[in-house]
Amino acid sequence: MSRDNVLVSAEWAEQNLTTPGVVFVEVDEDTSAYEGGHIPGAVRVDWKTELQDQVRRDFVDRAGFEKLLSAKGIANSDRVVLYGGNNNWFAAYAYWYFKLYGHQDVQLLDGGRKKWELDGRPLTKDVDEREATAYTAQEQDLSIRAFRDEVVDAINTKNLVDVRSPDEFSGKLLAPAHLPQEQAQRPGHIPSAINVPWSKAANEDGTFRSNEELTQIYGDAGLDGSKSTIAYCRIGERSSHTWFVLRELLGHGDVKNYDGSWTEYGSLVGVPVELGTGKD
Amino acid sequence: MTGCGAPAQTATLPANVDAGREVVLTGTVLSGGEPVGGAYVRLLDSSGEFTAEVVSSEGGDFRFFAAPGTWTVRALHRSGNGETVVSPEGPGLHSLQISVA
């Protein structure tokens, strides 16, 4: 797996804003960012209202994804370049999601919106209309998506990588420090999980660290490269960032993202939960 | 389900936050003495480890919920970067200014 296949630089992106067959897609939870200014020509995908089923806790189904991408004017043959705020969390989530439904040519803009803004590159409020397509999705590729039962089975067997902050991992907090604490589930982490916060994989401008640095970080944390890996966080977006690092940048073979993550696991009845640093 | 994105940054606290109990780090990002929005403000713990990040509002405002200890608050903006260190000893509002250049 080459970095160039899965990442594009801001410089490349700016030079290819009008290249036929390249579609820039901004993915955010808070879509007001897009309205305030986005990469020229980029279409918007709303993480909450467009990628999630609005009744059940699950993704939109295959037909729903086909309908969404068709309406956005994205074709099967298009090269989709994803970017967003929050250090590309939601863009990485969308990357994983596009892969889940079998889109072939998808890449992340390294550094996302942050790097683009810090570089002072152009933003626009203009929204280009794209002609609708007839997009065809595949059945979900479940080799990259983990569900709760296999997560329980993975305890002490596979690598479990908890990418939340140390305070969320130890059970002091239920949500990141910039958010009000919410939801009545148990704090803690899945036994045998290692804690490698997603932020370890990123430079301060939001770009990914080098493969050499990344290999060292996960190796030092005790990730066994010969085993399968499941990454999780609170709702599955920060862990998409780490899933991208392990599978797409470092080329690990069997890496799944557990999108149920702590909001599911921490509410399950009867499963083991561990508190503290996990190193005692 | 609420996501993990940062809420809007405002100078006033949300109604559900009790500054008598929480360690609130709040402040303004300045460039050339004027507040700047759109700065990426990062909260780093005493070992320099990343803890949280928000984007300053149009009025340059930012806010974190922290704990007693020593924190570095670092701002990145296209006009430059800057940082300040704060050591809250207990709950309350701790006001900061960060100049980027």
TrEMBL record, chain A:
| Name of this protein | Sulfurtransferase
Print the keywords alphabetically.
Repeat, Transferase
Recorded hits in PANTHER family, A to Z, give: THIOSULFATE SULFURTRANSFERASE (PTHR43855:SF1)
Q: Which PROSITE patterns match?
A: RHODANESE_1, RHODANESE_2, RHODANESE_3
Listed under catalytic activity are:
thiosulfate + hydrogen cyanide = thiocyanate + sulfite + 2 H(+)
Q: What species does this protein belong to?
A: Kutzneria viridogrisea
Q: Does the keyword Transferase apply?
A: yes
Q: Which residues form the Rhodanese domain?
A: 18-125, 154-274
Automatic annotation (TrEMBL), chain B:
Q: Which domain of life is it from?
A: Bacteria
This protein is called what?
Answer: DUF1416 domain-containing protein
Organism annotation: Kutzneria viridogrisea
In this chain, the stretch annotated as Disordered covers 81-101
Q: Name one Pfam family in it.
A: DUF1416
